[in-house]
Known about the structure:
Mean pLDDT: 90
Largest sheet: 2 strands, antiparallel
Number of helices: 3
Structural class: alpha+beta
Number of strands: 2
Shape: flat
Order of helices and strands: HHEEH
Strand order of the largest sheet: 1-2
Oligomer: single chain
Distance between the termini: 26 Å
Helix content: 10-25%
Amino acid sequence: MVASEIVSQWPDEIRRGLLHVLDGGRLEPSKPSTVVDCTGRRARVIRPGVLAASQLRGVVPDLLGDT
Length: 67
């Protein structure tokens, strides 16, 4: 999925500041990214990907999900 697809699918959330899109530009094919929800009191993995939760816990020790 490219950033423009996300922007076209969730324009209201972006406009209201509920969703932010960081566009990394055109990349070579790779494994899926890890998606982390940082909107709650504790960060939570919502899609496991190339970075395992165990790696992320080195920076965010109380990360929820992807055990």
